[in-house]
Specification:
single chain, alpha/beta, Rossmann fold, 12 strands, 31% helix
Length: 321
């Protein structure tokens, strides 16, 4: 199949990176490429998608549902950035006969650095210390070394694997758990917890690395937090809906947990008056784990490969149906 006249539409390039990205320049040698660098309302998005053969959305910045796809008569491929497609109505896409591809692992190095950075920032009071000094105060703050702690990885996909190495370099004992994980699946130095309960009960730091599914939505609820080791730290850079926020706040209020580091929320954006914003025992970032310049270039490079393979008749990185 020739792609010479196909039209590629890139959505939500809020950071203005795509226009000069090498991967996009390469695509322009074979395809017509249009880039939108601002959010579009559903009706406007539907008009944009109407003229697209290929759609490249940036993560979950735009919902792509029945309304947005109502006029998508030309759409053949959604080359999604990232490893999930929860914001896409896959039933509508299937009815259109279109394919969805992913860019698995593209954000893993960036998210892994954020996980380690959040842990160090919390346990060495980097954020609280900075705030304190800006008020003119000066007080000693008791910190916590990483090398005396066990890191529990809930899920063991590409991002959790990228976290394990730096954590072990800090001297941490690293344990992982997922439903089908075995000892053969993990690198040397990482142990496999026999159960989720064991992971929760033995981890000083719990880092969540699960996809959002019907089974994982609300997984970290009051009962799960009660199973956690007293004084543990929770880090979530995966999806906000995996954590029951009210249950987390209760666990923090009871001082069963020493703190939380959150890059993802339910809903997003986090409401201005949300109680999490008023706490000193949490570190909050606005879903920035994946938004590094390097991650975006990795996404675009893999998207370009996915598009080329699709039009060569040998699709790769296709979302399983």
């Amino acid at each position: 199949m020739s792609g010479d006249l196909q039209h590629i539409v890139i959505l939500d390039d809020w950071d203005g990176i795509c226009d000069t990205a090498p991967a996009v320049q390469k695509l322009r040698s074979r395809f017509k490429v249009s880039i939108y660098n601002h959010p579009l309302e559903p009706d406007a998005l539907a008009e944009v998608i109407r003229d697209a053969d290929v759609l490249i959305p940036f993560r979950e910045r735009a919902r792509i549902g029945a309304t947005e796809l109502a006029q998508a008569n030309r759409l053949q491929l959604i080359a999604q950035t990232g490893g999930g497609a929860a914001h896409i109505d896959l039933a509508v896409v299937a009815a259109l006969g279109a394919t969805v591809t992913l860019t698995p692992g593209g954000s893993s190095p960036s998210v892994a650095e954020l996980v380690i950075g959040m842990m160090l920032a919390h346990d060495h009071h980097i954020v609280r210390g900075d705030k304190m000094l800006r008020t003119g105060a000066w007080h000693a703050m008791l910190c916590r070394d990483s090398g005396t702690q066990r890191l529990g990885l809930l899920g063991f996909g590409p991002t959790a694997r990228a976290v394990a190495g730096p954590a072990m370099a800090l001297g941490m004992d690293v344990m992982a758990w997922s439903r089908s994980l075995t000892a053969a699946d993990v690198p040397d130095g990482v142990s496999v917890a026999p159960s989720l309960e064991a992971l929760l009960g033995q981890s000083d730091v719990l880092s969540i690395h699960l996809p959002l599914t019907d089974k994982t939505r609300g997984l970290m609820n009051a009962a799960r937090f009660a199973q956690m080791k007293p004084g543990a730290l929770v880090i979530n850079t995966s999806r906000g809906a995996i954590v029951d926020t009210d249950a987390l706040i209760t666990a923090l209020d009871r001082q069963h947990l020493r703190g939380a580091c959150l890059d993802v929320f339910e809903p997003e954006p986090l409401p201005p008056e949300h109680p999490l914003r008023r706490r000193d025992d949490v570190i909050l970032t606005p879903h920035v784990g994946w938004t590094s310049r390097d991650t975006i270039h990795r996404f675009l490079s893999t998207c370009a490969q996915n598009i080329e393979a699709f039009y060569a008749g040998d699709p790769i990185n296709v979302l399983p149906t």
